[in-house]
Amino acid sequence: MKPEPSLIQTNLLLLALSGCAASAPPAVESGGGEPAASAGAEPASGAETAATQAPAPDTAAHMRVSFWSAIGARDALIQGDLEGAKRFSDGLSKQDFSALPGNWKRQAGEMQKHASEAAMAGDIAEAADSVARVAVACGRCHQQQSTDGGKVLAASRPTAGTETVARRMARHEAAADDLWVGLVAPSDEAWKQGALTLRDLSPEPPTEGDQSVDTNFTAELNAIKALGLRALSAASIEERAQLYADYLERCASCHSVARR
Fold it and tell me: Among 22, 97, 123, 148, which has the highest number of CB atoms less than 10 A from its own CB?
């Protein structure tokens, strides 16, 4: 089953789709609903007529598929599921972008290059690095299409209260979404929010029932908190991509410890 999208995932998808719709050339129609001919223009040849009447590529549909494939790969990595991440990445690498406008194809090609690398990754670290670079390629394409990443809404976060393991995981999930949007939109604001969420995690271990979690799990949680400080000082997109890859790898490691 495909997981329900979080609020920030939904907002990112709407943002991306709005950028896609904006970049499709609008049809110019006459009063009768047919394309208006320019005054004095020569009649178009059959080939020219077919080209002008061909339907525009459904860029929004491409974005929906790309969005869920990339999210699927990312979420599989977070759970430590390398094979799942490789399946999602393989699907993304094989998506047919041939009908996209020419100015989209370079970044789509870059995205698929990294998706292909993730699909062939030998371990979580390699896959995490490639998936983070998929996100960067998405962000560069959105910048090229002049999409406004600053308007992405923040994810809902758990309210203050006893820090259970479930509540701590909800904070980690919110940070994962924000940092992802920081790369994909791209958005400095979202990146900073994700970094602050990690930095401000409690240094005290969360509880599971009446018991504190074991020391190995606590060490993993503290390592994730430390990533927040590093993320706050990361200014370049390359630094951020590497940090996000580190975050995915750390999440996978933490979940592996928790399952033992």
Answer: 97
Distances (CA, A) of 182 to 73, 178, 189, 193, 241: 17, 6, 7, 9, 10
Distance CA 142, CA 214 (A): 43
pTM tops 0.85, yes or no: no
- Cβ atoms of 154 and 193 within 8 Å: the answer is yes
How far is 122 from 124, CA to CA, in rounded Å? 7
- What is the Cα–Cα distance from 103 to 37, expressed in whole angstroms? 26
Beta-sheet strands, E only, within the chain = 207-208, 211-212
Helix (H) or strand (E) holding 165: helix 165-184
Cα–Cα distance, 152 to 131 (Å, whole number)? 21
Amino acid in the structure at residue 40: G
Query: Could you list the residue range(s) of the whole structural domain that residue 106 is in?
Result: 7-19+57-259
38 by Cβ neighbours in 10 Å (0-12 / 13-18 / 19+) ranks as exposed
Cβ atoms 69, 91 nearer than 8 A: yes
Residue-wise pLDDT tens digits, 161-209? 568 999 999 999 999 999 999 999 999 999 999 999 999 998 888 888 8
Kindly provide the b/e burial profile for residues 173-209, where b requires at least 16 CB atoms within 10 angstroms of the residue's own CB. bbbbbbbbbbbbbbbebbbebbbebbbebeeebbeee
Identify whether 46 is part of a domain.
Answer: no
